[in-house]
Every structure is written in C-alpha cells, then in structure tokens.
Amino acid sequence: MAERVAQSMAAARGLTGIIFSSAATSREEIGNGMDRRAQLALQQAGYRADGHRARQITVDDIEHADLVIGMEPLHLDIMRRMVPDADNLALMTDFDPEAIPGSGIDDPWWGPADKFGDTLEQIERAVAGLLATSLE
Fold first, then answer.
1. What are the φ/ψ torsions at residue 76 (nearest 5 degrees)?
2. Which tens digits make up the pLDDT trace of 42-88?
3. Three-class SS of residue 132?
4. 118 and 108 in contact (C-beta within 8 Å)?
5. Tens digits of residue pLDDT in 90-132
6. What DSSP character marks residue 100?
7. What's the CATH number for 2-118?
8. Rounded Cα gap, residues 11 and 18, in angstroms
9. For the chain, what is the largest distance between any 2 Cα atoms, rounded to a whole number of angstroms?
10. Helices 2-12, 114-135: inter-axial angle, 10-degree rounding
11. Angle at 120 between CA 114 and CA 124, to 5 degrees
C-alpha cells in the first residue's frame, strides 16, 4: 500500500527521479499479489492496486537505497541484522506527526477489511510527512 501511495503523492507534487519499491522482511508472501482488502482500500481512495508481487528485501536493496523504510519496529530490527552498519533505515511513522514515536503502522492483516482503510490513512499521513521532509 505504501509504495502506491508514495508513487501517487510524489507524482502529484511533480517529484521525479524517486523510486519507491516495496519489499518484505519475511518470505511468507513472496510471489503473491496484493491482499484483496488492501487492493480495495487503495482503489476506493483512488490509488493503483494492480501489478504488485511480493518480494523479499535484500542486502543489496538496503546498501544501495538512499532510504529504506520499515512499517514496524520489527522490520527495522530484521534489516539491521541484515546490514548492521546501515544508516539509511527509518520507521514509516517517523514521518507521521500524529504517530506515537517508535510506533509502527498498524498491521490490518488479521482484522476486518475496514482496518485496511485505517492503515491507509496512517500511510497517507506518513508519506505526506516524508515527502515534505524530502523537499526541505
């Protein structure tokens, strides 16, 4: 979801040359498409939801990206174990002015479909903050 929100918001602001890419820290969903509930939440909000396939993040991804954002503190822990000296890691909620510091984006996976809309709102706030920060 965050990849699609970031792509859309960056394009709307005329920001070019930024590559947003989604990657998992686990192997559970590798190769699978986007969750139908996530697709629905994105589509209802006017975002693209097609063509996504889950892939796992690599050491190369972390070492060569300007910024790698984890959705939950656990994601940062996993990436720090992969690349202990990485200085380009951040938590998505670091960019959300309404988030509790150190919290993560709520994972709606185990909840009802409407929780995906709540998660989308968190992502939208964080991506807006991220893009504002990158423009400073």
1. -65, -40
2. 999 999 999 899 999 999 999 999 999 999 999 999 999 999 999 99
3. helix
4. yes
5. 999 999 999 999 999 999 988 888 899 999 999 999 999 999 9
6. P
7. 3.40.50.2300
8. 9
9. 40
10. 40
11. 155
